[in-house]
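re: that chain from earlier
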Amino acid sequence: MDRAITKNLLRRLQTLYGQLARHTQEGSDRVARLRWASEQTGRAIASFSDLTFEESKTLIDGLQGQLGVRAPLRKRRRLSRDAAQRAGTEGRRGNTSNDVTMAGPAEFARINYALDLLGWNQEQLDALLRSSRSPLGQRATPAIRTLKDANRVWWALKRMADARKRDRG
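^ sequence. v structure.
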């Protein structure tokens, strides 16, 4: 037996159909919506709840393509209260915490995003980290190891990207 449509897919399908109805000559009432779904699936549909999981995915993909709408991004996993506190304060001036958190993939992805905004490559980042104006200070071997380091580099790169945007815009 085919899996039934989920609540989230049902909600997404109804939203997209409403957008289609506003942008085209499709009717927005229930009869028009069910007629459209029946035509698209090739079988009689009495309710959107009658759709299978696969049919609903196909209809959603078709509507998104027709409307030029991207699929919604997945929700980000929320940080715990302590992790959010560390992410926001480690590396800031005046932070007296002695906690050390190792930098993870999310921090490196954020730094790579900033590098993309600036149009920089890894060699340019390494040169910044070795320079006298390094966000990590004067170290014999500057490397991003902790959340504190990652935050300092991120904030420096973000300021540079914002300044570049202001100069261009």
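Residues 127 and 145 are 17 Å apart (CA to CA).
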